[in-house]
Design a protein that fits this description.
- The complex is a heterodimer.
- Chain A is an alpha+beta fold.
- Chain A is built from 24 helices and 21 strands.
- In chain A, the strands form 6 sheets. Chain A has a 6-stranded antiparallel β-sheet with strand order 10-13-7-2-19-18, with no helix packed on it. A 5-stranded antiparallel β-sheet of chain A has the order 9-3-17-20-21.
- In chain A, strand 18 and strand 19 form a beta hairpin.
- In chain A, helix 4 packs antiparallel against helix 5.
- The two termini of chain A are about 60 Å apart.
- Chain B is α+β, with helices and mostly antiparallel strands.
- The chains are: A alpha+beta, B alpha+beta.
- At the A-B interface, helix 5, helix 6, helix 7, helix 8 and helix 9 of A face helix 3, helix 4, strand 6 and strand 7 of B.
């Protein structure tokens, strides 16, 4: 028979099924027409599609490519790439003509699984894609079986067994394979600018939309409550009318701790800047990348952060900072541009006249934000030249940096020393991994103002916006990463249905989801180190890990080689059962002599175990019938053996 | 007469990866290492394994996934990449296992005529009773035919060798290979079984017409007319021609009987090499081959005289074989 034949039963159907099922989740991530065309092409591959002339196919493929370019306005973005992969994979099935095509398509099945994993990070889809692996394996197997998918049970057993055989090696590689701490490249379209060390209105907007990881924190003790999680980055003191920059402090600010010290470790993704983030306010830092604490209580490294940096910080959440500052030191924090924003200056002076106390003054501003028609929104119209005036009196909508900018300006105009702080606020606490994840989405800007005797006090004007006036479109954009697309996150859907959440299976599923999120999706170099520490392997260097990996892989290869290659004669099932039967009797004390026929042996055994006479006779009869008379069935023998197998033989 | 030397096989094999001089060296080495035997069990000593084209593609895809997943810090992608790597490792052993332990035994090849394709039967089985999937046997490195070795059973594969010259044809070194079960790895070996097949001369019709009732002057190897008088029945014995079986009697369930004809001694056909018109030796033998076949086909008693060897007139497959063998080895 030919070693390979496309028309062998099962080859075409399995290839089609494998590709279609791998494409299914991807269709939901592409524009509607791409998914539709792809599904249609796959469907046509069952019949008419195979007969299309080559030129027509070429025309259709070109048209689809042009369509993708129009849809995504380019060919080299992430989404265009996805659409293209989906389309080309489906068209390839129309070109299934030779062994080479079939091999290519089977490899494509694995690759599409990977693409699916890139676009979905949820447990449900991951389970779906991984449960498809036996199908992809079966596709490869069926191509090289002369009988195709006849004997499907054997095929299923084979492909399932292969998936399991590979598991030990997967676990080993997962634990010890060194993880990259910084990407080698990024696709255009997923580019993230990251935080900057100046603030021009409009900068933070691009950050808010990115759910890429900024840093991860592990606390020595309990994490601070959500409203205390202000991650101090840069202190901005100089304002030129459009943007805030770092400025030059005059003297170090003295910090008096008023509460306990919070200790934690931060793993910061590369920022290409020099600022380390720490809970407000850091007391000391211990970083592999040399860093110091600046005079304004932020953390600055000596070099740019181009790779992931892992540092320890001690912070004091309750503090008094720079309380003894003199007029010289405070002067930079009162400076404003010579002119511009006249209405805001006027307004600040009036308010200050009404509230001589600095604290009362700031509170009046916050109350105004809360009570007046101020909105939290990402849809901010372009502001006029006097940005503070335009924002504060006309548009009244903006996000954190607009509020921080305006309030700092007003405070200064009212004679209160103030400065902008940029960093991050909040973060997702992961109870399973016991760490906090801060994403670029959490980027934030707030301010600090100075009071006699109290020093620098944190003030977050954005928090004063009435929750009713938070733009729903913003909420939706934040929520998009979780819930927008179909079965991306069943967990959140289920959570919304009150009452249903009590079912044990749903709870279990939610737990599984959280565990998955903490330990698989977010697994990285830090978690890897933690896991290895838990396994009793602390402080492994990269070289150690590679050594363990090589040694482990080699030994597992030896084990699997032994397992697969060991010489193990295949005996026919009848002889095997009879041998097991004899072995059982031998353990009970009646050993079959080599010259003994089954009948003789049976008589001896019956004398030894009179209680089991009938069972023993039935067993031997069944064996003899199957072996010599060729009348019994193997099933009858197996059933007989099952009855006898676990029975205790009582000798007389 | 060695039909296909190793260099010939090497020339035919299609290995894109290796240049010609390397192939020649490889086969010289194989020739020294894998000696001919009537029966051969494949051990790790004889088996080679290397990724096939599909295998390189698989490796490429796995690497792509590994690098991509590392870059995007996508742990699930990494798991997939690890799983593919592990599957690749398992595939190495399984593919190797698929060929390891096969026992090869040469069967008796049926004689054939020069210029036709000779089939050397090769019995494949496993003394331990294991199954082996899609094992191909061919003269070159491309698989043309494949066979499954069943559990506790044997399968008869055949090696097709084009025969060129008459005489003994030694079974050439051949390629046994398999891509199963994944197609990612080619597992192969170049065994040689000691078997030989007889190649009769190619039958060529002589330029004069065959005249059963000719003048019989003995100038050419003209058949002498024989009587077709029916003489009686004889019980069929092994080696008797099936053409003379009385099928009507057999249909009446009287057993296999031969219809025998009485042929007086003068009515036998004699083919004499010495009496053939002048031509090259090989051509003369081909003519004789044709005449013998024709005579057998007509159910005639015929004899062959090659000078040294003389076969008295007779008929039947066995007689024909004896005569043709004498021609083949003349």
């Amino acid at each position: 028979m030919k070693p390979f034949d496309l028309n062998r039963p099962g080859v075409r159907p399995l290839l089609l099924l494998a590709i279609a099922s791998a494409l299914l989740p991807l269709w939901l991530k592409t524009p509607g027409w791409v998914g539709g065309v792809s599904a249609l092409v796959l469907f046509s591959a069952l019949g008419i599609g195979k007969k299309l002339p080559r030129w027509l196919l070429l025309v259709v493929v070109s048209a689809a490519t042009v369509g993708v370019v129009f849809q995504h306005k380019g060919l080299f973005t992430r989404d265009a790439g996805l659409s293209l992969i989906v389309l080309m994979a489906s068209f390839k099935l129309l070109e299934l003509k030779s062994y080479r095509d079939a091999m290519l398509i089977s490899a494509l099945g694995f690759f599409l699984t990977f693409v699916g994993l890139l676009f979905y990070q949820s447990l449900a889809v991951a389970l779906y894609l991984f449960l498809l692996l036996p199908l992809h394996t079966a596709t490869v197997l069926v191509m090289h079986r002369l009988e195709g998918w006849r004997g499907l049970l054997v095929l299923a057993k084979d492909s399932g067994r292969l998936v399991l055989l590979a598991v030990p090696l997967v676990v080993l590689l997962y634990l010890f394979f060194p993880r990259l701490s910084a990407p080698l490249w990024r696709l255009p379209g997923s580019g993230v600018t990251g935080p900057t060390d100046s603030m021009t209105i409009g900068d933070v907007q691009s950050l808010v939309l990115s759910d890429e990881l900024a840093f991860r924190v592990k606390f020595d003790g309990a994490p601070p409550p959500e409203n205390e999680r202000y991650w101090r980055g840069t202190v901005l003191a100089d304002f030129d009318g459009l943007s805030w920059t770092v400025g030059m402090p005059h003297a170090p600010e003295v910090m008096e701790p008023l509460g306990p010290v919070s200790r934690y470790r931060v793993a910061l993704e590369p920022t290409r800047l020099r600022w380390l983030y720490a809970l407000d306010v850091p007391q000391s830092v211990d970083s592999p990348l040399q860093a110091r604490r600046t005079w304004t209580a932020s953390l600055l490294t000596y070099g740019f952060i181009r790779q992931r940096v892992d540092y320890r910080v001690e912070s004091v959440l309750n503090y008094r900072l720079g309380a003894n500052a003199n007029a010289d030191q405070l002067a930079p924090y009162l400076q404003l541009p010579e002119n511009g924003n006249p209405r805001a200056r006027q307004f600040a002076r009036e308010q200050r006249a009404r509230h001589p106390d600095a604290s009362a003054f700031t509170h009046s501003l916050l109350r105004l934000i809360h009570d007046d028609n101020y909105w939290y929104s990402l849809q901010v119209p372009e502001l006029a030249e006097d940005i503070v005036d335009d924002f504060w009196f006309n548009h009244k909508r903006g996000f954190c940096e607009h509020y921080a900018n305006a309030v700092t300006f007003l405070l200064r105009a009212g004679g209160v020393p103030a400065r902008v702080v940029v960093g991050y606020q909040g973060g997702d606490w992961n109870a399973f991994g016991r760490f906090l994840t801060v994403r670029h989405l959490d980027a934030h800007a707030w301010l600090e103002f100075w009071q006699e005797g109290q020093g620098w006090t944190r003030l977050d004007p954005t928090a004063a916006v009435s929750p009713a006036r938070i733009d729903p479109s913003y909420l939706q954009r934040i929520a998009r990463r979780d819930t927008l697309l179909t079965f991306d996150d069943w967990g959140s859907v289920i959570k919304n249905e009150a009452g249903v959440g009590d079912l044990a299976i749903i709870k279990w599923w939610q737990t599984a989801n959280r565990w998955f999120e903490a330990n698989i999706v977010q697994f990285n170099a830090d978690l890897q180190r933690d896991w290895l520490e838990d396994l009793g392997l602390p402080n492994l260097s990269m070289a150690d890990m590679v050594r363990i990996l090589v040694f482990g892989v080699l030994s597992l290869m030896f084990v699997s080689a032994w397992f697969i290659l060991r010489s193990r004669p295949v005996r026919d099932p009848v002889a095997r059962i009879y041998a097991a039967f004899c072995a059982k009797l031998a353990r009970a004390g009646v050993r079959r002599e080599l010259h003994e026929t089954p009948q003789d042996f049976l008589r001896r055994a019956q004398r030894a175990f009179p209680a089991e006479r009938g069972e023993l006779r039935a067993m031997v009869d069944s064996y003899l019938a199957q072996r010599y008379a060729e009348t019994g069935s193997i099933r009858a023998l197996q059933a007989q053996w099952r009855r006898l197998r676990w029975r205790r033989l009582r000798a007389l | 007469m060695l039909a296909a030397g190793s260099s010939k096989i090497a020339g035919r094999s299609r290995w894109p990866l290796f240049p010609r001089w390397w192939r020649a060296r490889f086969f010289a080495w194989v020739e020294r290492r894998l000696l001919a035997a009537p029966e051969l069990r494949l051990t790790q000593r004889e088996i080679f394994i290397f990724p096939s084209r599909g295998g390189w593609l698989f490796i490429l895809v796995s690497l792509l996934i590994l690098v991509g997943a590392s870059n995007y810090q996508n742990n699930l992608g990494l798991v997939l990449a690890f799983w593919l790597c592990s599957l690749g490792v398992v595939a190495i052993f399984l593919s190797f296992r698929n060929v390891l332990g096969i026992r090869l035994r040469s069967g008796d090849p049926a004689p054939t005529f020069a210029g036709e394709v000779l089939r050397f039967p090769v019995w494949l089985d496993d003394p331990e009773g294991r199954a082996h999937a899609a094992v191909g046997i061919s003269l070159t490195a491309t698989i043309e035919d494949a066979w499954d070795v069943p559990t506790q059973g044997a399968v008869c594969a055949d090696l097709r060798v084009p025969s060129v010259n008459r005489g003994w044809l030694d079974m050439p070194r051949f390629c046994l290979q398999s891509l199963a079960p994944f197609g990612w790895l080619r597992v192969w070996t170049w065994p040689k079984l000691s078997a030989r097949a007889l190649v009769y001369p190619a039958p060529i019709a002589p330029p004069w017409p065959l005249q059963p009732h000719g003048d019989g002057d003995g100038k050419y190897a003209q058949p002498v007319t024989g009587s077709e008088d029916f003489a009686g029945h004889r019980i069929w014995r092994q080696g008797d021609s099936l053409r003379q079986v009385d099928w009507k009697a057999y249909a009446k369930e009287r057993g296999l009987h031969l219809r025998q004809f009485v042929a007086p001694s003068g009515d036998e056909w004699w083919f004499r090499l010495q009496e053939l018109p002048a031509a090259s030796g090989e051509t003369q033998l081909s003519w004789l081959c044709y005449l013998l076949l024709e005579a057998e086909h007509k159910g005639q008693r015929y004899g062959l005289d090659l000078g040294a060897d003389k076969f008295t007139p007779d008929q039947g497959d066995l007689h024909l074989h004896r005569c043709l063998k004498a021609l083949a080895l003349f």
